Structure formats: structure tokens, C-alpha cells
Amino acid sequence: MIIQRSSRLTADELEDIKQRNLIADVAGGYTKLRKAGGRLVGPCPVCGGRASSQRFEVFEKDASWVCAVCPDGGDVIRLVEKVENVDFRGAIERLGGRVEIDAARQREIFEERERKRVAREKNSADYREAERKRLFRAWKSAMPIHDTIAARYLKGRGLQLPDHCPGLKFLPLAPYFHGEEIDDRGRKSPRKIHSGPAMCSAFIRPDGTFGGLHLTWLKVVTPSNETEGRPSLLKAMILDPDTGEILNSKKMRGSKVGAHIAVVQPDQAPRRLVLGEGIETVLAVFTAHVMAGRFIGDMAFWAAGDLGNLAGRASGTIPHPTLKRPNGHPQRVPDRYPDPDDPGLAIPDSVEEIILLGDGDSDRLLTECAMERAARRYTRPGRIIRIAYAPEGMDFNDLLCAGVPA
Ligand SMILES: [Zn+2]
């Protein structure tokens, strides 16, 4: 029964139409779809999209579609509009039109929507916790770093390790996952594309529990002839087997938000904290202190993994003076002020001095904003905060290799 063509549809009426017309059924009526990586893919019924049969994708969980060629996407109504070249109302009619919704149907629609939402949330919370436990087992199984390939790799970069170094460990065979694969029963799982030696460290959450892993894959490079010297160790070069794209040899898995890597931890509660983005950055500053014979018994050296995690969320964004987006508009970067709803890293109350390390090899404005944001966020009465910048184009490890005291 089609009623009241003129007035607007209510949210329930829209939801009713979508529940009666599942995206997979409607899209499957237009084009031939196959399952791939938890979604359906096939030639695009709108543009033909034959260049690649994977450019038209249907996501049953979100009841949505997207075509990279069109480029367009949306819900089932949008799909009918595009394929049948009709307006919104035309699409609604083709999908069976608006049907009077009684209280029982309304209840049903609500329950179905809730069921999907709860399933989605539970799924992701369960998945995250299972992943965290898997990573924790890997962390427990990892070897102490001294006398391993990872220690030699760091030494090769001029970096020293503390005698007692529980924050960094070594995995002789760490799997590198990229993308997903589907077995013949349609179940998807992460796709392992590489396995090899890796330096690993634990992200410690603000409550002190294990959150995830930071991994750096390494490889041994054997020189082609003897004059080139001894085998050296480098970050592994990992390629996507499908595209040949060079992938990052570092990976962060699990939850790192608000979590830190305790690269060097003093025996006592730290009074001073050196805080940087990367492990090698803070190790470079540690090494410079050791080489200069400075007292470090009260110093902690932490890595945050990335700038965003180091400084926490910003209150807003500002336009970049030179970087542009593809459409010519300026790129926007997180500003200098902390979002008060994000506590950032859990800095111990014992810390009286924080030294923030700003690498010079990332974008200057982005780095400056992050450093100032961190300084504002972590300031306390009686606490000194210093910001140390590496010269433009260098990180602290380059500085150490160049023989300049940090
Ligand atoms: Zn298309």
C-alpha cells in the first residue's frame, strides 16, 4: 500500500524500506557479485567499471555501496537512483514504496536496528580484546634484546642500550600481516605476507596494562664482496605481493591511544622524562647522555609511537601555509591547543621535568604544533617542560651519527 506520496518519509519509514530491500539483493539484481574480504565485489552497475572488477563494493554490514570509478556510493536508495536514473522518490517507489508502519512493525524495525548495532560493537570489542591477548602472548614469548639481531641493528646505528632493558625485546620470526584472505568457506583472516626477525616493544596503557606491540622488521644484508665489509642490518623491505608497493617496516598493533613504550625506565620513580615519537629517537638521546657521562639514574625515556599519540588530540585545526590538498585548498593540521577531553599520556606525578623531542624530518609546522600541544597538556605547577628540536631534515639519531651532542 503506497500512501501519502507528498509528505517526507520518517526515519522509521526509511529504515523499513532499507530492511525490506537488502543492499546485497538489490545490487545482486543489477550485477554479478562475489564475496571478497567481508564484502561483495563486481562490475559496477552504474558506470560499468570494467577496469577492475573490484572497484564496485557492497558492504552488507553497513548496508552501503561504493564505486571507486564513478566515484559514488551510499545506501540502497542512492544505488537505485543512480542505476535507474531516477530521483529519490522514484527510487523509493521502485523499492516497494512507503508502507504504513504500525506499532508492531515499528518495534521490529527498532529491534533489528539495535541488534545490528550491538552485534557490530560487540564484535569489534571482542575482536580488539582477542587481538590484545594474542599480542600479549607474543610479547611474553619474545627474547631479551641483548645479543640479538635487534641489538646489533641498534648498535649499527650508533645507539646504546641500557644494561637492563625490559622495554625492548626481540622476536626471531614475527609475522607481518597485510590485507585479508578468504578461505573456501568464505571466512576471512589477516593475510601473512612476510615473517622474519623483528625488534618489538610493548605499548603500556595509562592504567599500566599491556595495550599492544610496536614492531620493526629487520633483515641481514650480506655484502656482495669482501671489501664492502661485514654483513649489516637494516630495516626489512616488505613488498605488497599484489601491487609491489613498499610497505612500512614498522607496525603498531593493538591499542596505543594514551599508551607509551618505556624504552628506558629508571629503578626509582622518574624525576625527568625524555619523550619522543620513535624508539630510535629516544635511544639516540639516551646514548648521547651516556656518552657524555651525565647522570641518568632519575630519567625515563619514552616513545609514543607517533606525534598524535605523543601530543594527544588537538582542540581544532589550522591551515598549512604551503601544503595543499589535491583540490588546491590548504591542508589542515592539528593546532597548538589540547582537546581537554583527551588526557594524553599518563605522565607520572614524580616527573618534574619533561624534555619533548621534535624530529626535524617531519613537517615543521605539524611537529611544532604537536610539541606545543604536548607542553600545554602536560604542564603542572613546579614542572619544567623543554622542547628540543633536531635541525631541519634530521632526527636525533642522524644528529648522534653526525657526532653532534644532543
Ligand atoms: Zn561505477
Question: How would you describe this structure in keywords?
Answer:
alpha+beta, DNA Primase, Chain A, 2 domains, five-stranded antiparallel sheet, 20 strands, binds zinc ion
Question: What is the element layout, followed by pairings?
Answer:
Layout: H1 11-20, H2 23-30, E1 34-36, E2 39-42, E3 56-59, E4 64-67, E5 72-74, H3 76-84, H4 88-94, H5 103-141, E6 143-144, H6 149-156, E7 168-182, E8 188-204, E9 210-221, E10 232-235, E11 238-239, E12 246-247, E13 250-254, E14 261-264, E15 272-276, H7 279-291, E16 299-303, H8 307-311, E17 317-324, E18 330-334, E19 353-358, H9 364-378, E20 384-389, H10 396-401
Parallel strand pairs: 15-16, 15-19, 19-20
Antiparallel strand pairs: 1-2, 2-3, 3-4, 4-5, 6-7, 7-8, 8-9, 9-10, 9-13, 11-12, 14-16, 17-18
Helix pairs in contact: 1-5, 2-3, 3-4
The structure holds zinc ion.
Explain this structure.
There is one protein chain. Helix content is 30%, strand content 29%. The protein is of the alpha+beta class and 406 residues long. The chain has two domains: 11-101, Alpha-Beta Complex (DNA Primase, Chain A); 131-401, no CATH class. Strands 6, 7, 8, 9, 10 and 13 form a six-stranded antiparallel β-sheet that branches. The radius of gyration is 27 Å and the shape is elongated. The N and C termini lie far apart (77 Å). The model is unreliable at 1-6 (pLDDT under 50). Zinc ion binds at residues 44, 46-47, 49, 56, 67, 69-70.
